[in-house]
Amino acid sequence: xxxxKQLNFSYDQTPILKDINFSVNAGEHLAIIGESGSxxxxxxxxxxxxYDVTEGRVxxxxxxxxxxxxxxxxxxxxxxxxxxxxxxxPFISVEENVGKYxxxxxxxxxxERTNELLEVxxxxxxxxxxxxxxxxxxxxxxALARALAKQPELLLLDEPFSHIDNxxxxxxxxxxxxxxxxxxxxxxVATHDSEDVLGYADEMIVLHQANIIAKxxxxxxxxxxxxxxxxxxxGEFNVINDDFIYAHQLKVVAKSxxxxxxxxxxxxxxxxxxxxxxxxxxxxxxxxxxxDVGQSAYLEITK
Length: 303
Ligand SMILES: Nc1ncnc2c1ncn2[C@@H]1O[C@H](COP(=O)(O)OP(=O)(O)OP(=O)(O)O)[C@@H](O)[C@H]1O
What we know:
Elements: E1 2-10, E2 15-24, E3 29-34, H1 40-48, E4 55-60, E5 63-64, E6 79-82, H2 94-99, H3 107-120, H4 136-149, E7 154-158, H5 166-182, E8 186-190, E9 203-208, E10 211-216, H6 218-223, H7 228-234, E11 237-240, E12 243-246, E13 250-253, E14 258-267, E15 272-278, E16 281-287, E17 296-301
Parallel strand pairs: 3-8, 3-9, 6-7, 7-8
Antiparallel strand pairs: 1-2, 1-4, 4-5, 9-10, 11-12, 13-17, 14-15, 14-17, 15-16
Protein name: ABC transporter ATP-binding protein
Organism: Geojedonia litorea
Domain ABC transporter: 2-234
């Protein structure tokens, strides 16, 4: 189990993280969300032992995670960290990068393990390709496979799918997170993307102004977002009668007290997202048909 106790951190005078407390069980999946600059990457780096905490302690089971003041070599065998910049070896092949830290004493096992991981990240066809010729998204997938090679107990992922195209992203997410669950590998994922969280994370932490402002299951935070920041992570929303109402929770009806005038209509595939004016305030709602600018629409909350 990972235990983070009263962690405080600053690079200089400004506190970046204040009184951070949480734990993660073996095999559990925790998502960390927050605006850009809220300290997500810094927190992952502290959990990896890349920096020394200013105050507080971090434990994985009974081992204390310590930074460079205490360790000559940064990091621990049981933790792997895939940063936003992946530090691969460009002049060797994909399979050599993935197998780099696997023992050559067991060549058959090394090949099997490398092949298994290349399948997880859907790069089997690129096994012999030199990394320098790969695209950014392909390199990110090599970095993920390499982090898993010597099965870690805890995997730290910083925006793990940021370079990967939408065609691959969905299936890669499913494969990777299923693999981690099957192998009981705990993971902590810093992300801006609600698709990385919903359906996968067991718990979610929201960082804001150096503090954890919410910690709960994604379902609870989705259903009861306590702040606009949390609601906005999940999609367009409105504040009506002090309540957060997602765009899909406003329905067009024949008559109601909520008469909005359409300002913009955005095609979203299976629906249109409509931006409308209601008494000088902007409202967002979803509708299956296109509406004309200037048209009036009666709306009802369907929460
Ligand atoms: N090496 C560093 N030295 C000084 N300040 C830093 C350093 N790295 C990050 N910071 C600052 O710490 C704050 C948190 O940065 P961090 O990268 O942890 O945020 P983040 O939430 O991961 O952002 P993003 O979502 O954009 O990746 C920012 O204000 C950043 O400028």
